[in-house]
Here is the input.
Amino acid sequence: MLYREAGDFKTTYSLDQQTFPIRSERWLFWLFIAFAFLVVPFLINDYWNKAVLMPLLIYCMAALGLNILVGYCGQVSLGTGGFMAVGAFAAYKLMTSFPGMDMFSVTILSGVITAAVGVLFGLPSLRIKGFYLAVATLASQFFLVWMFNKFAWFYNYSASGQITAPERTIFGYAVTGPNTLPWATYLFSLTIVFVFAWVARNLTRGRLGRSWMAIRDMDIAAEIIGVSPLRAKLSAFAVSSFYIGMAGAMFFANYLGAAEVTEAFGIDKSFLVLFMVIIGGLGSILGSFLGAGFLVLLPVLLKNIMVNQLGWPTDLAAHIQIMLIGGLIVFFLIVEPHGLAQLWRITKEKLRLWPFPY
Amino acid sequence: MNVHLKPIHEIRMTRPDDGIAPGKPLLVVDNISLAFGGVKAITNISFDILKGEIRAIIGPNGAGKTSMLNVINGFYHPQEGTITFRGEKRSRMRPHVAAHQGIARTFQNIALFKGMSVLDNIMTGRITLQNRNLFWQALWRGPAEQEELEHREAVEHIIDFLEIEHIRKTPVGRLPYGLQKRVELGRALAAEPSLLLLDEPMAGMNLEEKEDMSRFILDVNQQFGTTIALIEHDMGVVMDLSDRVVVLDYGRKIGDGTPDEVRNNQDVIDAYLGVSHDE
Ligand SMILES: Nc1ncnc2c1ncn2[C@@H]1O[C@H](COP(=O)(O)OP(=O)(O)OP(=O)(O)O)[C@@H](O)[C@H]1O
Ligand SMILES: [Mg+2]
Here is the structure.
């Protein structure tokens, strides 16, 4: 496939603002989507589903959400784990209170509930910025986890303190519970991620996205051109939490099946998703996917090489992995703050001119 | 981009007319005083801006010119006095509300959105004119895209008018100073304001850039009929462009009138020659 835009002229503004302005890239994208929807379900097995595909989809969702807040609106958040927990517990309460509700509604409603909680915890952003806001969201992380542990109503007074997803089916196929089939949970999650990634793209390319970016780049000027900081910041918290809540709901219901809040939604989740956004590229939809893909696949790959191929001890491999990821984060923060998405863009530009760089 | 371009005066104006007849006061500043702690930035200033005119605000450094614009668009709240805009009296308001009422401005120190392209920066200027709700925006296809394209077209005309087609997709941070000032003017124009506040739009420019900018300001005033308040240090520019001038010094108004009247005003001459104040 040649990567060329020659002869690919834009004659209208609507063509000029397409997501994939270059024809070959558009084809590649749809081929990839067709592969994900039509081919992967036939190839999938339990290992791929549990180790790679489900975490990938769920973290893509969470990274999309966090990127809207941090990358597009410039509001730092360390509360991702806590908001995923809100989504998970919302899904649990919805599933147990309304057994007849289908899983798409459960997931989306969990997102809506998390959005409301996100707005609440986003209120401090109207007064504080940067480091102070990061600390405030960190506090919300700890508060939420504490709350879900403290009040037994949230986990329906179960003795273990765990929440367990009952079985729910779509068209007769289980997507939650003990009898799920890998392809069914995969397709369910893929559908949700695909639809909402498209929504995220739409929101960020229009007026709302520009008002977020205006607040991010210079809040005073944003206000003077007519952006209400209150509406822009709180809508970013709402939309961001909506995505993170859905990610939490899927993480619990479709992936883990049973979860204990401290373990599943601790502060390490907040950092992991933040690293994905930084490595992938702040303020980029594609970057959210690249970052999530990178940090989900890298450990799997490293483990396969170091433990299975080279026969190194597991703990040594784990340490090397932590150091490597740490190094990469420092690298991206210093050398390429726009992350993998920017590297991809630069590569494309080079490729476009190849083999005549002038 | 092979798009047929309309001349600038054919651009459809989206914002409803402000309802003020030409030559009648669009903005009345009445007895405004503003202090920061003990520092008096503005003391008892009154003047008006008539619909359709270019009103210059001049004065030495620290005279309170920028503070005056900040009061007009709601960024500073004066301790005393009132502002009447389009016949409506107001005392305290947020800048984004002023923007929705039709006041746009540029800044003395450029305040563009560094992470965005020229096109996106100017598109942000139309935020007050776009009103599709979250649902339509999420869906994109349909009303939201329709609205986006309409505004894109209007913005393309502004880009054309300002002769910055070639840098449309460039991130503004990479542009030289003079072009950034032009983009900032574009962003303010995109709002189709009734009142345009320009804070030293030509500061730091070379002669050629100044001439371009003067031409844009005159064109905006004449072709759009936009009322303009202009802060400028270059006296030549002020005398050429403005219909009336208000002169500030140490937060007080020391002169108000046509460029000729102001030029021959003894207080103004003293202030500019640095005659010492007996305080
Ligand atoms: N936010 C603020 N806090 C404290 N003092 C301020 C503030 N803004 C302005 N001032 C003071 O008010 C006075 C007027 O400042 P202003 O910026 O309005 O002057 P100016 O006429 O625009 O000057 P210049 O020609 O240098 O731009 C100055 O003494 C300034 O120090
Ligand atoms: Mg000033």
Notes: Residues B 65-66, 108 surround magnesium ion (ligand 2) (CB under 6 Å). Residues 44-266 of chain A form one domain. DSSP finds 15 helices and four strands in chain A.
